[in-house]
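Below is how a single chain appears once it has passed through the pipeline. First comes the sequence as given, then the structure the pipeline wrote out for it. We keep one example in the README because the format questions we get most often are answered faster by looking than by reading.
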Amino acid sequence: MKIIVAIDSLKGSLTSFEAGAAARDGILSVSPKSDVKIFPLADGGEGTCQTITAGLGGELKSVEVTDPLGKKISAEFGEVPEKNLAVIEMASAAGLTLVPENLRNPLDTTTYGVGEMILRAVRDGCRNFVIGIGGSATNDCGLGMLTALGYKFTDVDGKDCGIFGRDLKNISAIDDANVPAELRDCTFRIACDVTNPLTGDNGCSAVYAPQKGATPEIVSTMDEWIKNFGELSAKFLRLEKISAAGDGAAGGLGFAFRTFLRGKLVAGVDLVLDALDIAQDLKSADVLFTGEGRLDFQTAQGKAPSGVAKLAKKLNPKILTVGLGGSVEKISDDAGLDSTFAILRSPVSLSQAMQKNIASKNISETVANIVKLIEKLH
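Resulting structure:
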């Protein structure tokens, strides 16, 4: 049998690779001649950089960047030289967790560090980018990032506006004369699972800024600033339409990527699966093992296990798709999974179940029993 293993991380317990290795060990213990291939899995959120970089045999690079509050920190991103690919999580430079709760205010945060990471990767020779934009601390519409990349934003007196959310109010003109020529050769694919427009009742300020410390007054004010910024940008870039679905992601960073950098906003799990090039192996596989820490009604709503299962069924209707979870509740019929199994083998506390050795053993034994049954039926 040809078996593909693509299991998302079990948060607080096993990484995607560790869970995959445990499943492989279980398969080979009862079916040593099986052709088993492990793919790491993520949904575009936290851990996506490490997942894609490791899955493609790349390496993590460390770079000094500007954090959301304007201080210097060290951040990691992935590079895969064979594909001229850089994998970046914006949260590593501009994430909410980098800002103490008492200092959270979208007027005072910036995405400048994201632009610095992109520039470093461009200088290293990367021309293809996969970027996760979840977990931002910002609502600057990409002003900081674009400034780091060479775009110049000035006020009515021709003075530089700044890089923070509060500086959006002063923008009167845009200039791209200092944007590196290499940037125009780059392609950007952005993991984005929200459809919020740039402004309005469902825009970035109204929906997400309160989570980042914005008061109702700040929300209203920033929405107006961002509306003006969007209109000015559309005129500068000669856009037919100012806003599209997903532009409001990460405090308007989705808009900046889509317009200034000609990026494509893609569902997170689809982007990860495409980057890992799993499709060809799914076409010829007999069984897919996937899963995550908890399988429930949310699994079919853009989660990684459902994404890979649906892709498998699309490419290979005969493939058997099996979901594994630390706990399993009712799963939607459209999740793409033929069957689901809880991996717990005996009553234990949650803390015990999450211990690496116990979780690995549970996966291995559960998978081994499933493979025994499959072989017997065939």
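The two ends are 10 Å apart (CA to CA).

See the next section for the split statistics.
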